[in-house]
Amino acid sequence: MTTTASSGGLAGVTAGETAICTVGKEGIGLTYRGYEIDDLAAGATFEEVAHLLVHGELPTESRLDDYLAQLAAQRGLPPEVTTVLELLPSTTDPMDVLRTGVSVLGTVEPETTFDDRHVIADRLIAVLPSMLTYWWAFTTTGERIDTDTGEGQTARHLLTLLGAPTDDTHVRALDASLILYAEHEFNASTFAARICASTLSDKYSSIIAAIGTLKGNLHGGANEAAMGLIERFRTPEAAEVGVMDALGAHEKIMGFGHRVYKISDPRSDIIKSWSARLADGHPDAWMHPVAERIEAVMRREKNLFPNLDFYSATSYHFCGIPTSLFTPVFVLSRVTGWSAHIYEQRNNNKLIRPDADYIGPDRRVFLPLAERHEAA
Q1: 127-136, 253-262, 334-343: which range is least confident on average?
Q2: Which domain holds residue 149?
């Protein structure tokens, strides 16, 4: 990998090449393997995009049918995994549940060769929703759910296991969200996965590194924080007063701005439109106009735009997804992009080991232990 000048947080530093995704490139926008995100979100399913990212091309109709059947057949959880999931406390962070589940699966179904690169990726795409919902159901109701529902589509499968609405509108909305979250170039979690992969570690370890990185509040979790803000206000007027007070107290409002995008997040308008559609007739429909007022205040006061996380919060809520599962759902999608990057790293690998500018003390004289004294 190549780098340019040193920068705090590596902002503006080019750390390598990728053929998977463009983010914030002038005149290009956001694309997955050359396809515009608007076209994918409007015309494709999540499985089509998963196939594009992991296997390199959009599937034909017959190949998609085979792929859906393949994923559906891989949703079952090994008994070793369910045993561990049942041992995890109900207070466990759901991101830790996924991290642990992937780790256990990696010991039961280890990667023994790099040659068949798609097998583990497809297995994880299929099984991660099963891990999350099995643990959720067991810790909230004590039920050992059957994760093999026979549903071919990931979005419908997930909503079914959560006991959420599974009409076409809710399924398509969640499907669009999974597409929007699937890939985003060298973000922190993807870069962590590539660093791990560059050591020639196994696929599971690379995915675990990514999950641990996404767990951090500065990367994942913004949609959960946005939900916490939105649900505090019952009217747009109350939201305006509350956000102005928060800004006056120098509180950070999550779900706004982006490290790479400077004018707008091209994913935001797409998920916002789904939020509006899902709000229609929902008992908590008031949340959407509240979110719109918060957006207006942030534009007016801070010149900040909403990123994907902001309206994903209301969309997920309207779909019946518990707030604590918002970021784990991110994982269920982004595992596709992580997998693509792990394979890309392996295909042209060089150990990622950047330099650092030393800012510590000058050379010092070493003193034997008996001659060292506490500073006055």
Answers
A1: 253-262
A2: 17-187+325-347
